[in-house]
Amino acid sequence: MNAKCDIGAPADPTLTDGVPPSQAPTRPPASLVHGIDTAPAAASATAVVKTGKPLTTESIDKVRNERDRLRSLVSQLREKKAPAVSAAGAPSHVMRKLDEARSHNQALASQLEEALADVIRRRTEIRRLQLALKELRGEKKTLRHDGLIAARDLRHVTQRLERRDRDLDKLRKSLKRTRETLTATRGLARDRLNDVKQLRVKHKAAMAALAERYREQLREARRQALRATRQVGALEAKLAAALAARAATRDEARATLAEARRQRNQHEIELNRRDRLLQSAELRGQRLTAQIETLHVQARRAADRLAAAQAGTARVSTRLDTSLKDIGRLRATVKQTRAERDTARAALAEARASARSSGNDLLPQLIARGTSMVDACVRHVRTQLAERARVDARAFAHALMDDEVTVEIGTLCSGIYAHADGFQPLARHLFAKVRPAWVSRHAPAEWIDSLLAGDLDAGRAAFADWLAALPAAPDATQATQLACIAQRLVAQRQLDLAMTAVTRLEPLLDLLDDEQRMRSRWLVEQLARWQAARLDAQRHPAGTCDGKIRFGIIDYKMLDYDKASSNIGDHVQTLASLSNVVRFKNVKFTSQEPGLAEWVDNLRTRLNPDYVIDGPEKEVELVLVDRDFSHSRHYAEPVWMIGFGWYMHPNFRDYFDFPFAPNLRPIFVSFHVNNRAFLTPEAIDYLKANGPIGCRDWTTVYLLREHGIEAFFSGCMTTTVGKVFPRRTTTSERQHVALVDYRPQPGEFEGKEVSKFTQAGTDVRHNSFCRNMDDAVKLLEGYQSYEVIATSRLHCYLPTTALGMDVVFKPRSMSDIRFEGLVELGEHGFARIRDGIEAKLARVLEAAFSGASEAEVRKVWRDACAPDLAFADEYCKRDIDLGLASFDPAALAAQLREGALHGGRAARADDIQVAFAVDHNLGEELPVVLESALANASAPLHVHVMTRGLDRGYWERLIAEFGDRASLSFYNFDVVDYGDQLRMLVHTTVSTMDRLMLPDLLPEIGKVIYLDVDILVLGDLAELWAVELGNAPIAGKSSTFASWRYGYNMAYRAAGTLSHRKAWQLRRAMHAKGPLVFQAFNAGVVVLNLARMRADDFARHYVPLIERYGMNDQDALNVYARGERVHLGIEWNAVPSQDVTDDARILHYAGPVKPWNELSITRGREFNDYKARYLARTGRKA
């Protein structure tokens, strides 16, 4: 385990023995200070620190003694330098004090003379020590300063040990609570086991009694049957005629027997009436026979009941076994807890041992094996990123960057982290500060990629330079870098350079590990296809049409191995699309792809005759089109195709191979957009030119229409697959259930035969198209042997429903954007989708297969879609009412103002209005922010603070501390309740929601600057106050974090937390109010136009979004302002982990790591400097 050890960490250069630099004593230029020799003490302290030996108790005591001696000497010097006191006119007692002081000074002078003599005697030794110190330090630092550093390091060690002691105490308390919990749990488990044992004994006794009762009833039935048999023997002669009559009336007797079976007590009634019924021999024999049959039936029922009782016993035994397993798991948990406790103890012991060591080098294990500091740090960061310990990786890099010794290494590591998180401008900025040789050696892929993202020419030149400098026989590290660079070149659409990279990489594939080799070989093969297609296109330029009719069939190969389809459900979609193609019986299919035409002809033989269309007598050439990498082939003009499914998977996170390759003529239906980044300007123009677009779900309809693309809801292609499969007609008495990527609830399919399947597998990537299509057919045929299908996959639910099967569909989230319009359909709704797709495709394919021009085919498609387009127009314009706030914001704000506390400097009309929302968690950080804001403000501030969990004493304290510099108003928001459906970030609290009340809370104020508390003001807020809003409601800085970059991110994320019907309602309402493709802003620093927000009745209409629809305050502000926002520069909201902060006017420590946490964050020291300044000014203790 790598434990953090800080004893060797450099001390804070801004502090001098606990005193800020502005208050620190001036350092003397040499070791001789006013005749007192400080060199021996400083040399002794430095020797202990710099020898690299462990800090023993003896050495620590020695340092402390020398430190105390130094302090004593400094005090003597200060007393000696005290200004003389004038004796003129002084009282006698003052004169006595002066005489005493003179005597004391004379004694001190004698001591100083002795010290000078001692200095002369030891001058030779001092010179030798000074030379040694020069060699060790390499710089002109004085021995006195080294002594102070050693003292500070010692205090640092002591503080660390004390903190670890406190941690140990907390751990002991936690372990004590764990033991108590375990004791209680053991008792509970013991009681539960005893209850189970008692239940088993009672149940065993009850089962034995019940079984005995059933056996007695069976014996009694047998005795009655024996008596009846004897009576039948005595009357055998009389029964002969009755038996003949019975043969004639057997059917009637069987009906009577069936009725007798439904009456459990019939035999007792029949036996009681036996004497009366035997008056007639024929009737008596008939009845006796019936009784015998009834008794046999009841015997069988008794046996069944006995079996049921035994089954009940088995179930109880199963529950008992489950309980025992629970106890076993509990014991395992106890064991694991103990192991974790032991691990924690070991970690604490290791941390203490490490703290006692003065050699706290970075990553000692790597460095001990001879790894350089740079290599070790880079490898450490990459390992943490690979293990998804992103926060730790960033803190490690920032800690290095904030140390003057390791600043360059930290900058390199921070650049690697920034690139991994997608902050390309920051990565470029950081790499530019590092020596090029380091970047080229340790981060070439990140460096080249970040350059390409900002300047293609610079990135291409950097790649060429790096490749030229590569040795003729690269090692495994450089082979790995080549593979990574090739991927990033693809991601940046530089496929020609990627081809150059893989050409250099191909001979080196054996140097890679198995996973890297497989992915790289795949990339080499796919780029080779692209290169061949490019050369083919050069030989056959665009614009040449040979008159042939061609049709493209969707396949799913792509450049990125990990994103290439591994889901056979994709090929089920292709199968469904082909079920519409093979309807034309007069069309002859050919293909240059081996086996493709034959496979399609074979599929045609499966078609239900009711769906056959004569169609034109034409020859159609079939070609394959990789949906996610259509440029892997060159297509002769023209090629019609049906564009359906998920659009689309990016290659290596960033490269969407869209628009399609030239000469492809897509008809888009069952089209789904899952990633907004797919809709580039080129993609939007392409979809407009090939519209209208039939969308698989309503969310895609909303998104496309925002971009001016004609779109309507078509539903999913897989609803049409049923016509190439026979309907299932037979059923089994015992239901067989197929679980397809489905996790059942306990007891959900109890008593049913269950089989488990998955539709995902890497073999799908490697198989040929025809092989995958065969597997898709076999998959659906296999499902038909089951009575029930339970699945979480859309492309299992819809096709099996199309086959007429009973389907349970439970995805991970029914609120997923893919499902609006596709669930809760009912038979009529499902048929409407299926019939609509089949009818439209029949018309458009007939036109395409007949050889019609592109314009004619497009017209047929538009005419077929006209009714659906008209319905979509009407549907998307329907007003969706999300309701109003559950309280009256204006009335509540008035109540809050009545309980407010106002203090400090008198408020003025020209004050800069600043607002904060804070609770008890950040109560001690707010004064630091105020300190920084007031220190840099050129105009007076009026600060409005909305608080939760902070009493009136806190308000009065801040007024006392800042009241001479600002006006302050405090409002208690503890009474404001936003309901129990709030959704907040893990590092935020409900107090951040309170800013939504500002328009009603401050009715006389036109605008206000709102600031989060995790900020530091370095600029003049008067400049921010001067930003012109006009009629815009908000001014804010655009978000640099990818997950928060657009408005639809916020609306869709909130909808994903709701029930599916509320999610549909929210998404449709948000789209209906205006486009969601606007660039979102970070709400940590905003200027609010309160007058505009009051005019819009903001709180009443947007508080419901946080009360009932899963949004947070930042979401609500964004979907309110949308495109009307005034853009603030990065300098007014610079996030150290995301932005270039060199010119920051406000630092925003967004995210879970704050300057007051244990983990490091760059520029966090500045916050702590202001904290020290605030504490020093107010006299408060930290």
Automatic annotation (TrEMBL):
Alphabetical UniProt keywords: Coiled coil, Glycosyltransferase, Metal-binding, Transferase
Domain of life: Bacteria
Record carries keyword Transmembrane: no
Coiled-coil features, chain-numbered ranges: 60-277
Protein's UniProt keywords contain RNA-binding: no
UniProt region (Disordered), positions on chain: 1-30
UniProt xrefs under InterPro entries: Glyco_trans_8, Glycosyltrans_8_dom-fam, Nucleotide-diphossugar_trans
EC number: 2.4.-.-
Gene3D superfamilies per the UniProt record, alphabetical: Spore Coat Polysaccharide Biosynthesis Protein SpsA, Chain A (3.90.550.10)
GO MF, one example: metal ion binding
UniProt-listed PANTHER family: GLYCOSYLTRANSFERASE 8 DOMAIN-CONTAINING PROTEIN (PTHR13778), LIPOPOLYSACCHARIDE 1,3-GALACTOSYLTRANSFERASE (PTHR13778:SF47)
Identification of the protein by name: Glycosyltransferase family 8 protein
